[in-house]
Amino acid sequence: MHTAMVGPPLLALEGLGKSFPNGTVALREARLTVHPGSVHGLVGANGAGKSTMIKVIAGAHPPTSGVMRWKGEEVVWRTPGAARKAGVATIMQHVPLAPTLSVLENVFLGAPGPWRLPRARRTEFARLLDRVGYAIDPDAEVAGLAIGERQMVAILQALATGAELVVMDEPTASLAGSERQVVFDVVRRLSAQGTAFLYVSHFLDEVLSLTDRITVLRDGTVVEEGETAGYDEDRLVQAIVGRDLLAAERRGPAAVAPDAPVLLSVRGLSSAAGVRDVSFEARAGEVIGFAGLLGSGRSELLHAVYGADSRARGEVLVDGRRVGRTPRAAVAAGMALVPEDRGAQGLVGTFPIWQNISLPHLPALSSGRALPREAAETERAERAIADLGIVCPGPGALPGELSGGNAQKVVFGKWLYGGARVFMLDEPTAGVDVGAKADILGLVRAFAAGGGAVLMVSSEFEEILAVATRVLVVREGRIVAERAAHETSEEELLMLANGFGEGGARDAA
Ligand SMILES: Nc1ncnc2c1ncn2[C@@H]1O[C@H](COP(=O)(O)OP(=O)(O)OP(=O)(O)O)[C@@H](O)[C@H]1O
């Protein structure tokens, strides 16, 4: 990392304001200064205005007020194309690549210049790989790539367009440890070559280790800006949420009574989606963490338990009674699943928040015939908004008006306030800020303490250890190891998830 502080900044925003038609003021007199070759962290709670700022920079949202300067010159980018042409590339969390095209074709999709000729392309591709220090087959089809590799294709694509500033929105959100490292290495390497990065992330350890400077947004305004060296995690959390939370997050799991009844039994579950002969039990009050790498089958396992995979074979029992193998039967038996892909499976875009939250519970909330009681539903939504700290104009807001993290909290609220007893969470804190993360983990504990059972999948093993009573390690669709949470460590779980048993021997998975 070398920061060229002499000369004008690469990008400067001054007095930036952005209001939406519904009256929400997302940015107020905000400022940002990014220097060439620097890695600049942008952090803030859910709804603080990070995405809005990025979208203004990327030319996707016109600002309502303020000035933007690029290399010292005042600029107005009315389209993403204009920003890209000037040298800004934006990499969003869900990388929009063309799945049926090859890596090579994707990398040069938006690139200008002479790269239409196959020979020139391959030469340039090799040069780009050399710059990032990463190897990937140019002829591989993108559909077959792991998420980490897709991120790399997006970075190569940004370089191919000649980007001088790469904006990354939560680039590591669904990556496993080793894949994250690859992203960090590339960012460091490219910044040393002069490319600047604006790095948006809720993973504060990443922001602290990777960036040179940090800007903290709260409620649309910049509350702090300074050199990363002047921060530690506690101070950054304070700046983001205005309170100290780490104590709550580190509290550790509660113990389960040895005579607690078995709530959920899973027997010999297998599926074509890669789940292989999985059996386990969950007692009332237990939080079971499923530790596995991306692609280990951990999400498929939850889906199979929930009955969402019609090809799955095996038995699932709640309170000793067999549950039919459909999501409908699962819900009726008291099971709830909060999926990882909340965008596609979580919310109905045309329903206000209150309706989304009560969607799974309509029978319980209805009086007489299928007429929902709006007052009860609104009350439930208001409770969810308060408990989970959902930043929104009110229960009548539409999902599209919410920031990403707040929309996730709504999905969470959907299930939390019903009569569920077995709660399955797939990456429950992905994309939510540190404050909400502590709130959600607190809710998980409260749910278990109230006699429920929780199955939780997370790529963050630290988070699993913070709430789980027991950890099941998933690899290649099987449970390859079981540990009591207080008897294991992040390092051990990572080894096991990677297929290494104790002493470095590969487990016979
Ligand atoms: N299209 C929109 N219409 C109305 N309000 C919006 C719109 N997009 C965002 N907002 C609001 O603007 C504010 C800032 O949202 P933004 O998405 O920038 O937050 P964020 O910091 O990126 O949050 P997260 O960490 O959850 O992604 C929020 O209050 C959000 O509800």
From TrEMBL:
Pfam families from the entry? ABC_tran (PF00005)
Give the ABC transporter domain ranges: 11-244, 257-501
State the UniProt keywords alphabetically: ATP-binding, Cell membrane, Membrane, Nucleotide-binding, Repeat, Sugar transport, Translocase, Transport
InterPro entries for the chain: AAA+_ATPase, ABC_carbohydrate_import_ATPase, ABC_transporter-like_ATP-bd, ABC_transporter-like_CS, P-loop_NTPase
Molecular function terms in GO for this entry?
ATP binding
Which PANTHER family does this one have?
Answer: CARBOHYDRATE TRANSPORT ATP-BINDING PROTEIN MG119-RELATED (PTHR43790), D-ALLOSE IMPORT ATP-BINDING PROTEIN ALSA-RELATED (PTHR43790:SF3)
This protein is called: Sugar ABC transporter ATP-binding protein
Organism whose genome encodes this protein? Nonomuraea rosea
